[in-house]
Amino acid sequence: MKVFVIGANGNIGRLISQQLNEKGEEVVAGIRKPEQAAFFEDHDIKTAHVDLLGRPEEMGVTLDGFDAIIFTAGSGGKTGDDMTLLVDLDGAVKSMQAAEIAGVKRYIMVSALWAENRNRWNDAIRPYYAAKFYADEWLRTRTNLDYTIVEPGALTFDKGVGKINISGVEGGSVAREDVARTVVALLDQPQTIKRTIPVITGDTPIKEALKNV
Amino acid sequence: MKVFVIGANGNIGRLISQQLNEKGEEVVAGIRKPEQAAFFEDHDIKTAHVDLLGRPEEMGVTLDGFDAIIFTAGSGGKTGDDMTLLVDLDGAVKSMQAAEIAGVKRYIMVSALWAENRNRWNDAIRPYYAAKFYADEWLRTRTNLDYTIVEPGALTFDKGVGKINISGVEGGSVAREDVARTVVALLDQPQTIKRTIPVITGDTPIKEALKNV
Known about the structure:
Chains A, B: This is Oxidoreductase. Chains A, B: Residues 7-190 form the NAD(P)-binding domain. 2 copies of one chain form a homodimer. By secondary structure, chain A is α/β, with parallel strands linked by helices. Chain A has one domain: Rossmann fold. Chain A contains 7 helices and 11 strands. In chain A, helix 1 (11-22) packs across helix 6. The longest helix of chain A is centred in the middle third of the chain and has 22 residues, at 81-102. The interface between A and B is medium-sized, with 21 and 21 residues.
C-alpha cells in the first residue's frame, strides 16, 4: 500500500511513518522543511515536500498515485492561533481537496477526543478544538473520501501496550505509539470507513478492537 | 419586521441598528457588555445580551420570535486569532444554530469580498478570511436558513452615497453606511435569498441594484 503521511515530522507522524515502513508499506513522509528529512533518511523512509499554506492543486500533484493519506499535521503550541486557522483547519481542508484532485479515496484524520462535541472541548485549548471540529466536519459532509477520523484521548509518551478501548469512551489517555498503531491497523479495514473512532488505552488488542467498530 | 442585530456595537452594527430604527422596524441590538447599551438607549433602541462564547441553546431563547437576524459581529484586530476562531467562525455558526432552534428563517451575514475564494484572500489577514470562509460555507451548506451573504469591499468611514455596484465586482471600497443601507434594503427582498452579494460603491441606487441580484 502506498501511503502519504502529512505532518510526518510530528510525534505521531514519525511513529506512523516508521511503523508503516517496518510493516513493508510504501510510505512517503510529507515534510515542511528540508532539515526535517534527516530523521526519515536515517530510517530509509522517502520524503516529499508539502506546504499546507500552498494551493490544493500543488498538493494534489504530490499526492498523485497514492492509495491512502494520513493527516496528522498540527501547528502546535509554539505558533499562534493564526496558524491554528491556516494549518489545522484550512491546511487540513486543502489536503482533503488535494486528495480529491489526486483521486486518492482513503483518508485518515488524526483528530482529538470529543472534537465533534462543542460542549466537551477542553477549555484551555478551545480554538484548537474549533479548528479540528470544522476540519472534521468538512471531511464528513463536504467530501466523498473514504475517511476515518481517529480521536485519541490525552496523548502520552508512554510505551504503547497494543491494547485500546474504542467504545463507550468518555475520557482517558493513550500512548502516541498506540495511536500510530491504531492508524496503521485501520488503513485497510473497510468497516472503519466513514467512522469516527475514539481511542484510549484499554484492554482489547488493537486489531480485535477495530473489528467491532 | 422584528430584527435582531448580532454585533450591534460594531461600526456597521450601529449603523444597521440606527437605520432599521429610523425605518420604523422593531430592532433589538445584541450586545456583549452592559456598558455598550448606552449608545442604543440614546437612540431609543432596545438591547439584549448575546454571548457568542455561550451555547446556541441560550442564544436561541434570545432570538425567539424574531423575523430576521443580522450577523455583523467580529472579534476585530485588538484580540488574537483565538477569538477569530471562537467568535468570527464558531460564534457565527452558533448564531445560525440558534436561529434554527428559534425558528427564525431569515439570516443576513456580513462577510468580506472574496471570502469564498481562498486565492483572493487578503494576505495580511488570511486567518480572518479563513474564519469568514468556513462560517459562510456552513451557512450555505449546513443550514436551511433563508440566508443572504453580503460581501463588502474595503470598508471606509466615508459618508454613504446610496449607490452601489454588485455585479462584475473585482475589488473596490464602500462606505460602512452604504453597507448598512444595503443590508437593511435586502432584508425583505426574496430575490436575495441564498445569494452571496459583493458590494462596492457604484452608480446604481441600492434598491435598484438589488432588484437584479
